[in-house]
Design brief:
The chain is an alpha/beta fold and 505 residues long. It has a 7-stranded mixed beta sheet, sandwiched between helices. Strands 3-2-1-5-13 form a 5-stranded mixed beta sheet. Strand 16 and strand 17 form a beta hairpin. The protein has 17 helices and 22 strands.
């Protein structure tokens, strides 16, 4: 049976996953990719270091599989969206890759908000710019690093850099191209989008747009030596990772909202016509003539990870079982108690502006760690609800699909169903984004008719959690206080940021 390789590069880890063409996972290898923060708000990674880590992961996955690399029928990559990876005229990295957690352009975006640019961008491209959007980052580089700006020859996304390293070809796909410079109606580049941001000089630097399931090149001899792949193995264009995650769990279909709980709170729905709203990005779907509306913020399960890393570090690796298993019983006990405790999960960003910050509210001396963790998970679920409620205003849906590492927790999945007031389905697919990329690879070489022809028994992999309407009513009341506190704290957040600035001075 031929196999498929899905390469998935997140914000901290790059994974190479080998699948049989029936969807069975054969082997997975992971490599951490360090982030560099040379200055406040600058979040970067070394581009060559990323490729080295990806090549190591591919070689390790092939070795772990016990199968020859010649069994691999095709390869495709997926990776974090937004941010930018730049090449010069010699097709060499032009500085570090900029991640989607970067906020150096926040001030520039704030300036845009005081003009009509937001409205013009929304009308033309289906989205308003944010700090990590390619449009804002490139405009920042034009203003702050003009010498670097003048040397830009190619503008890539993360997965496009990996494609280049594998094939020596430059291009992107429609899900990635629509992050900044495409016209909403035509789903193709428009010079008017570049003009909005004063970036007309970069028209020739935009990569060609390929279908996600198109063969765009083959593994080069150089890449084969680094990865253990066979030179000449076909490589597909691939797609944006949140789209790949939805596809990998049987989603990216109309009528159901896909929720990805990871570094970002991702909430998305596919439609056959575009719909603009400042509360979401309307980007291109996998197929032409489809659009993916995404309401997002960097405020999901990284808050839980922060809690464990900061407050539970001494217990990691101590005793039997994982730290997650030991904490699960504490959280479960806390769920049985009434609580005044709420948490704003805005440690790394929010949908409420750059000044928003995380906080525990209603905390008393009798609250224990389980109460705190319950509040963290509840705050994450409430932030997802904020985005899902926005999408409910524009699209009909009555159920949600949930993926991300925390989706493996039955307690959290049930909490999401109760908070949203709708059925929530999870999927046992361990590496959903990598499988989404592999579906594109398989479709590119004819193993599947389209990337949607998932050969697995999805019903057997899926578990659905129905909402308890009594708990939903209770969560409605708690969510109302959560939202009221957001509004009340807006002026306080600004004052807190000012205190921080004074302290630095």
């Amino acid at each position: 049976m031929p196999s498929l390789l899905g390469l998935d590069s997140g914000l901290t880890v790059t994974k190479a996953v080998l699948f049989d063409s029936d969807g069975t996972e054969i082997a997975v290898a992971r490599r951490r990719v360090p982030q560099h923060i040379p200055r406040p708000r600058h979040v970067e990674r070394d581009m060559n270091g990323l490729w080295s880590a990806a090549a190591e992961a591919i070689a390790a996955a092939i070795a772990e599989s016990g199968r020859p690399a010649s069994d691999i029928a095709a390869v495709a990559a997926t990776a974090h969206g937004d941010g930018i990876y730049l090449l010069d005229a010699d097709r060499k990295p032009l500085g570090a890759g900029i991640l989607s957690l970067d906020s150096r352009a926040e001030g520039l975006v704030a300036d845009y908000s005081k003009t009509d640019l937001f409205d013009r961008a929304l009308k033309l491209t289906g989205q308003i710019p944010h700090a990590a959007a390619p449009s804002a980052l490139l405009a920042w580089i034009a203003r702050e690093e003009p010498d670097r700006f003048a040397r830009i020859a190619h503008i890539l996304a993360c997965k496009d850099w990996l494609r280049f390293c594998l094939t020596d070809t430059i291009g992107t796909d429609r899900t990635e191209a629509s992050t900044a410079f495409t016209e909403l109606a035509t789903q193709d580049y428009t010079p008017d989008a570049l003009k909005l941001f004063g970036l007309e000089a970069l028209a020739g630097a935009l990569p060609a747009i390929d279908p996600p399931a198109a063969v765009v090149g083959c593994v080069t001899e150089a890449a084969a030596r680094q990865t253990g792949l066979v030179a000449g193995t076909p490589v597909a264009a691939g797609l944006h990772d949140v789209t790949a995650s939805a596809l990998g769990i049987g989603g990216h279909r109309a009528g159901v909202v896909d929720v990805v709980a990871g570094t970002y709170s991702i909430n998305e729905i596919v439609s056959d016509r575009p719909r603009r709203d400042p509360r979401w990005f309307c980007r291109s779907g996998i197929e032409p003539g489809t659009w993916n509306s995404m309401s997002i913020s960097p405020a999901s399960t990284t808050n839980y990870d922060w809690f464990l890393e900061t407050l539970c570090r001494a217990e990691a690796g101590v005793g039997d079982g994982s730290i997650h298993e030991r904490l699960a019983s504490e959280i479960r006990d806390a769920l049985e108690r009434r609580s005044t405790l709420l948490f704003h999960p805005f440690l790394f960003g929010s949908p409420h502006g750059a000044n928003a910050s995380g906080a525990f509210l209603g905390m008393h001396g009798w609250h224990d760690r389980g109460d705190l963790l319950r509040a963290v998970l509840e705050g994450i679920a409430f932030n997802h609800r904020y985005h899902v409620d926005a999408l409910r205003d524009g699209f009909p849906f009555e159920a949600a699909r949930l993926t991300g590492g925390v989706s493996r927790s039955p307690d959290f999945a049930q909490m999401m169903a109760d908070v949203l007031g709708m059925p929530v389905s999870t999927n046992r697919t361990g590496e959903a984004a990598a499988w989404g990329a592999a579906l594109c690879a398989g479709a590119a070489v004819g193993l599947f008719k389209t990337p949607f022809d998932d050969p697995r028994d999805l019903a057997a992999l899926t578990r659905t959690y129905s909402p308890d309407m009594n708990r939903h009513a209770d969560y409605d009341r708690r969510y109302a206080v959560f939202a009221e506190a957001v509004e009340a704290l807006r002026p306080v957040w600004r004052k807190l940021e000012a205190l921080g600035s004074e302290a630095q001075v």
